[in-house]
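Bumping with the actual sequence this time:
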Amino acid sequence: MYSNRDKGLRKLARQIANFQRNLVAYFIVNGILWVLWWFTTNDRSLRGNTPWPAWVMLAWGLSLLFQFFEAWGNSQEKLVNKQNETSSKD
C-alpha cells in the first residue's frame, strides 16, 4: 500500500511529533515542580544544595536530547537516501 519512502517519512514524522509533545510536557511538568519546590521549601538560598527539581530536569533533559538526535539528527540524510532509493527503482 505504502512505498518504503512513504513508510520512512511517516516514521520520521511520528518521531518528530513525539519529540515535540514530550518537549511541551517537559516544560509544563518541570514548571509545576519548580513552583512546588518554591512554595514547599524553607531554604531558597541555593548555597550548597541543589534543588530536587534540577535533578528531574537533568535526567529528563538528557532523555529528550537523545530523542532529539533520533528524530532530527540525520533526518535529511535519511530523506536523501530514501529519495535515491526511489529514483533508482524508476
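The C-alpha cells above came from a reply further down the thread. The chain has one domain: 12-89.
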